[in-house]
Amino acid sequence: MSNVNKFEYAPAPESAALVNIKSEYGLFINGKFVAPKSGKTFTTINPATEEILARVAYAELADVNLAVTAARNAFTKTWSKMPAAERGKYLYRIARILQERSREFAVLETLDNGKPIRETRDTDIPLAAAHFFYHAGWADKLSYAGHGSNPKPYGVAAQIIPWNFPMLMLAWKIAPALATGNTVVLKPAETTPLTALLFAEVCQQAGLPAGVVNIITGDGATGSHLVNHPGVDKVAFTGSTGVGKAIAKAIAGTKKSATLELGGKGANIVFEDAPIDEAVEGIVNGIFFNQGHVCCAGSRLLLQENIQDELLEKLKNRMNLIRIGNPMDKNTDLGAINSAAQLSRITDLADTGDIEGAIRWSPNCTLPTKGFWYPPTIFTGVSQSHRIEREEIFGPVLSVLTFRTPQEAIDKANNTPYGLSAGIWTDKGSRILWTAKRLRAGVIWANTFNKFDPASPFGGYKESGWGREGGRHGLSGYLKGQY
Ligand code: NAD
User: Fold this and answer.
1) How far apart are the CA of 358 and the centre of ligand 1, in A?
2) What's the pLDDT at 32?
């Protein structure tokens, strides 16, 4: 008798030899890799094995000064003078190189981040290339984008990104900035700098004029120097709500404009008439994709009370099939947690679920002994006051609540300081529209979850941020409209 739970996959590891990781990386300033002024470096590790991958330069104020000056010179002397169609050609060139080198990028991202190769190969890198293709098309059509007949770039954009989608977040930042005629100083997160540094090589390969893109590596102090630099015209930040608030305070009263893409606590609402099996797939995708390190994760499941037993049984059966382990294995569903610090944040916050009386369940799975790992976890018996329901865990942990009426679902879904994403599962189109109209979330998926497209604007309400990225709306963050 066959038993689907016993079905085993043979390991299918991707080869790490596809990427040539240097032992040490400098800062990418004015088209060249240079040593940091202080000579300080830090290491980046593979979170699945704890092995050191490379030493990376640590940028201090003197380095930030150089990078901002390079970006300013490139803006005034080259980039703002170049015909828009020519700018677009560089973006196309970068997009094509990303496609050509996609395997290399996917492997490097998986090694540095811990996310499964299946996701970097099929999602992160193709979407990053798609963002460059999409924005390449806009470069010479900005006067048709609805921001006036002759919209102008701000100048120098300071861009700071998190570690959960390093290359994709870089593309969300750099592609629209360049298409609209801005130059860039970008700082990747301290635990995932390597794909941004490989992207610097792509800029060289594409012949991008020196200084148009500068990549500086470092931590929060480096980011703070960048945000506060007087030579910066625009700040684009993706990261936690706490740091987003600090940045908003830091630039208040200055000439700097900002877009902030912050945290989330998305509600995934399943009505009684939903296609249950599809909803289960959507729930799994919503919270376990990328180890739950997803700002728009469906981390709060709202179930109509009368389907809760059936759905939870199916969800647990499905979770029993999640394959956890080596992120380089093409069969792996759930990879490593990105860092020891994030693992301890997830562990501490999930533990409050136990302390506050929620009921924890995880499949019986064996976690690797080296590296940072957390099992897929659901909590039932959760109330709206529990910390696991209110705070962003940013890990593979789902809180389950129930509701009886559609209005109760709306009230519970909106009862959060965040407003980034939501999902609706129902058979009825009219119910999708009724619900979506009442949800305070920037992105709402219906009968699907975690679908992204460069043409579709992404962003939040409330403490999930300011502004939109992607689509025509996202261009406005980089343009001074002239109406
Ligand atoms: P984080 O805020 O700690 O760090 C993000 C980046 O900001 C890093 O590069 C970090 O070095 C830098 N930074 C830290 N302190 C800074 C300061 N004072 N000034 C300037 N820069 C500073 O966030 P994280 O832990 O790396 O990322 C997880 C968070 O990002 C989650 O809250 C998640 O929801 C959010 N996120 C949001 C989106 C979105 O589009 N809304 C997308 C991805 C991640």
Assistant:
1) 29
2) 98
Q: Using a 6 Å cutoff on CB, does residue 420 contact ligand 1?
A: yes
Q: Amino acid identity of 94?
A: I
Tell me the fold of 16-261+462-480.
Aldehyde Dehydrogenase; Chain A, domain 1 (3.40.605)
Q: What pLDDT is stored for residue 482 in this prediction?
A: 59
Q: Is the beta carbon of 170 within 6 A of some atom in ligand 1? A: no
DSSP state at residue 193: -
| CATH class given for the domain over 267-446 | alpha beta
- Say how many CA atoms lie within 13 Å of 12 toward its Cβ: 11
Q: What does the pLDDT read at residue 6?
A: 60
Q: Long-range pairs for 310-316 at CB < 8 Å and ≥24 separation?
A: 310/276, 311/270, 311/276, 311/279, 311/280, 312/378, 312/380, 312/400, 314/276, 314/277, 314/280, 315/280, 315/283, 315/284, 315/378, 316/361, 316/363, 316/378
Residue 468 Cβ < 6 Å to ligand 1: no
Give the C-alpha separation, 142 to 472, whole Å.
Answer: 9
Residue 224 Cβ inside 6 Å of ligand 1? The answer reads yes
DSSP sequence for 103-115 = HHHHHHHHHHH--
Mean pLDDT of each 10-residue bin along the chain, 483 residues long: 63 95 98 97 98 98 98 98 97 98 98 98 98 98 92 97 98 98 98 98 98 98 98 98 97 96 98 98 98 98 98 98 97 98 98 98 96 98 98 98 98 98 98 98 98 96 96 95 60
Q: Which of 112, 195, 235, 238 to mutate to test the pocket of ligand 1 (most atoms within 8 A of CB)?
A: 238
H/E element holding 447? none
**CA 240 to ligand 1 centroid distance, Å:** 4
Q: Give the sheet arrangement for strand 41-45, strand by strand.
A: 24-25, 52-57, 41-45
394 CB near ligand 1 (under 6 Å)? yes
Which pair of tokens denotes residue 433?
């529209």
- Ligand 1: which residue has its CA nearest to atom 30? 239
DSSP letter for each residue of 369-392: SSS-----EEEES--TTSHHHHS-
Q: Is the CB of 257 under 6 A from ligand 1?
A: no
Q: Which residues make Cβ contacts (< 8 Å) with residue 76, sequence separation at least 6?
A: none
**pLDDT confidence of residue 89:** 98
Alpha carbon of 162 to ligand 1 centroid (Å): 5
Decide: 285 and 333 in contact? Cβ < 8 Å.
no
pLDDT at position 1 is 42
Q: How is the chain split into domains, by residue range?
A: 16-261+462-480, 267-446
Catalytic residues: 261, 295
